[in-house]
Amino acid sequence: MAIYDPTKTPADSYDTHTHLNDDKLYHDVDAYIGRANEFRVMEMNIVGYDAIANQRALSIAQSHENIYAVLGFQPEDTDGFDETAATTLAEQLQQDKVVGVGETGLDYYWESTSHETQKEAFLTHLALAKKYDLPVIIHNRDAFEDVYQILKASGVTKGVMHSFSGTPEQALAFVDLGMSISFSGVVSFKKAQEVRDAAKVVPLDRILVETDAPYLAPTPYRGKTNEPAFVKYVIDSLAETLDMSPKDLSDVTRQNAHRLFLNHD
Known about the structure:
Blueprint: E1 13-18, H1 23-26, H2 29-38, E2 41-47, H3 51-62, E3 67-71, H4 83-92, E4 98-107, H5 115-131, E5 136-141, H6 144-154, E6 159-161, H7 168-176, E7 179-183, H8 193-201, E8 207-209, H9 231-242, H10 246-261
Parallel strand pairs: 1-2, 2-3, 3-4, 4-5, 5-6, 6-7, 7-8
Helix pairs in contact: 7-8, 9-10
């Protein structure tokens, strides 16, 4: 018996941003993939954030069908992103099953890494995305203006604003630069009306869904360990916001992910 009612969301879905490479999930990757499949989450991107997570993402993607790797250094881990790390990342980006660069970007919330260090790493990631013609997956927290200006100046026009939590105006600003907007469990949070308002203005062909597991578990699992299976609850909430059926939203977001990451129409 499926643990998620298949009559409620009968379409396959694509979790575009999950961290089965995180210690909280890495110990039992196959079980999490199996449960995701029961929830009809049939494809996913394993997203790196430091050297160890990048290697794990590659390993998971290359040993499982319909699972792909996105490789990069998140802003909080860019202190270790030196020339050697950048060279290794460039080599990894050319391997099979790699579909994106990231996550990268700027995070001014934690203040654990200097803004200049983050900016330099962000610029390197953007250059790699351009060189290898890969979409860039952008982490933006309390840094909208700097992220926007750096991205605009880079000329990169293919990527994702990951786990979007900004305003409708910010969403449209990034859409105008060519970015897709990815919604996570945040869209299901009671107090996240601004995020739901943003979802309503994003063109349907630019919307993606993700879990960001093991973080940001959606309602009704908020506060618990998130997992790829729970992207279905993101879809349910977002579909309600957009006045769509979960099936139709699953279809649309899967097709959007295929076009962006797999070059499928």
